[in-house]
Predict the structure of Amine oxidase.
Amino acid sequence: MASFVSSSPPPPIYDVVVVGSGIAGLLTAEMVLTSLPNSKVLVLERNNAVGGRAQVVSPNSPFDLGGAWSWSDDRLSKLTTRLGIKKFAQPSKGSDVILQDLYGGGQRVTTHTGGQLLACGPGAERIEGGVGGIPLTLSASIQEKGGEVKLNTEVKRVKVVDGIVTLNDDVQARYVVIAAPPQLIATNVEFDPPLPSSQLSTMLATQTWMHGTGKAIIEYALPWWSVSGLNLCSTGTSRLGGHIDVTWDNSDYTNGKYAIGMFVSEGATEDNVREEIEVIFGGDGEKVKGIERVTVKVWDDVGIKGLSASTATYGSETLRMELGGRVVFSGTETEDEHGHIEGAVISGERAAKTVLAKIKGDNDKMREGGECAGDIRAPA
Ligand SMILES: Cc1cc2nc3c(=O)[nH]c(=O)nc-3n(C[C@H](O)[C@H](O)[C@H](O)COP(=O)(O)OP(=O)(O)OC[C@H]3O[C@@H](n4cnc5c(N)ncnc54)[C@H](O)[C@@H]3O)c2cc1C
């Protein structure tokens, strides 16, 4: 009787698997591959696109729906320079009196001439092409270097046995970096061995930065407001029971892209944003209606609602405790950087350095023991 024996090779054991394709996770994967070009690196992402909270409307419409501005940004500047991504100062066009009479008076906002953006304050810079360009560039670089990025793959189980980490029962790695909001991970992922109770409770108590907040972008072919002398800062309609919190000029004048940006609350839709923007700027007549596109993104999928959580634990060492010396935790909430992009960059670099040091330690041990076959290193 014929017997059928499968000849397919066993699945690979990755050197590093990164969970989460936000800026933190992709930066870790890219740095590991840059230092160790022969290494096997995989990024797993539960969404159908990379970027996490760094997302633009579309490649042709580079307006940020998540993170947009940077301030004290030494590490971020070094990264954007290395990736060839330019930054520019937030536009500050307009006049002293920035709004027409709103809501029957009383809600008017004023700033100094050329006043700074209400939403982000002085000194803010933006990324040309949007912050979402950073993960896209990192992801392309990872794949050029031989790494893999797999979308639509949520990690639900992490098991550490005998120096090997198994994810979802089918992916194996020597080291794993979990680069995702702690609260989300603590709620959705089962760990074996279990996380220490202090770590689990700290993760659950850590708010995912900006969850439940949203942004809307209204695009125009031309900046009608510059003719009207408005700089687009407003307190929005939230005090009237509406969905818009504040508004600002979101344009990139150098590249001829014009938009009003705004924070919006849960329940915001394209229709109510169109209606409410007329309440705010309708004094300018028909021009406010010449909308090319409205995009609304409420970030209700980045964190778990209904838990009592705060930002006080950001950067806590407890969030960064490793599991079994094999699983490293990163992501902006693990750093003391207010949940900002900078925190994602710092945590991504920390996680890369940590796993690189561990791999180097393993290689040194193998060399001492005369076992060099599995040695991963950069070519001389
Ligand atoms: C509306 C908004 C406005 C913001 N504005 C600013 C700003 O102006 N300036 C600033 O500095 N920062 C801002 N931020 C914050 C900034 O966007 C974040 O700090 C940064 O993008 C976080 O990156 P990260 O890699 O740490 O996490 P994320 O970008 O959250 O990446 C985590 C990734 O992990 C994935 N993931 C989660 N669980 C799993 C799982 N089990 N399996 C697989 N994948 C998983 C997620 O889908 C996600 O892609 C803003 C954020 C939002 C939402």
In short: The chain has two domains: 11-55+132-210+301-380, 96-126+213-298.
